[in-house]
Amino acid sequence: MLDEPARILVAAALCWINFVAIDVFFRLPESGGVCGATAIAEEVEKGGGNLHGGFMLGNIVSSPDASAGTLLAACGVYCAGLPGGLFAALLVYIGNRICYDPGYAGTTGAITATFLVFGMTQLGFAATDFIAGMVIAIFTLQGISHVHSSRLIARLWEIRNRLLGEP
Amino acid sequence: MIAIYLCAAIAVYAALRVVTERNTMRKLPFFNVISFAVTAIIVLLLPGPITILAAAAYFVGSTLESNAIASTWAGGMKKP
Hints:
The structure holds two protein chains of two kinds. Chain A is mostly helical. In chain A, 80% of the residues lie in helices and 0% in strands. The longest helix of chain B has 23 residues, at 51-73.
């Protein structure tokens, strides 16, 4: 079995893939959900980043999206097992409604993360690995360099549009 | 046990980035990282069925706060 640091890194990679895939699929990089998210995107672009990547960073700040769903689902599974994760999905949905967001990305992310975390706990991982992993995952996107992370998201957004057609 | 120290270290680093970043709008993603880390620390310190409610309440509250700061700074209720 893997040591704790290695498990946290694997969990971080899985969380990153889970939340970025769902956010990009639900068109978070397309436009700002609220005017605050648009303003953050414009500032990121002024600093040398990409506007579409900035929209996603702004939307993550302004409303609980799939990243919040993944974190709270991991917390829910840690506190109360599978029902706890699904309860966290409900809380994310309520949070989305408070922030004037339709809530599809956050709720879907929480439900997929619940099954991901619960499945991995059966394979010898701990739910705490996923809680720390999600903090690392959001840190790589929001906490290191907005210029580089926004460009990376813009590249993923282009790939999504090529595969699934222009929005 | 490493998990909680890791979250605390990330929270402190993000707090330093908030202080050193000059642009208000660009502070907010770093603030978001602090919210994630503090939510994780709450759950890791107090495992129990009620904790998920406290963590979700803190997280949604801090997101709403960032949303309010960003939207007010961007010009209130005007459409983008």
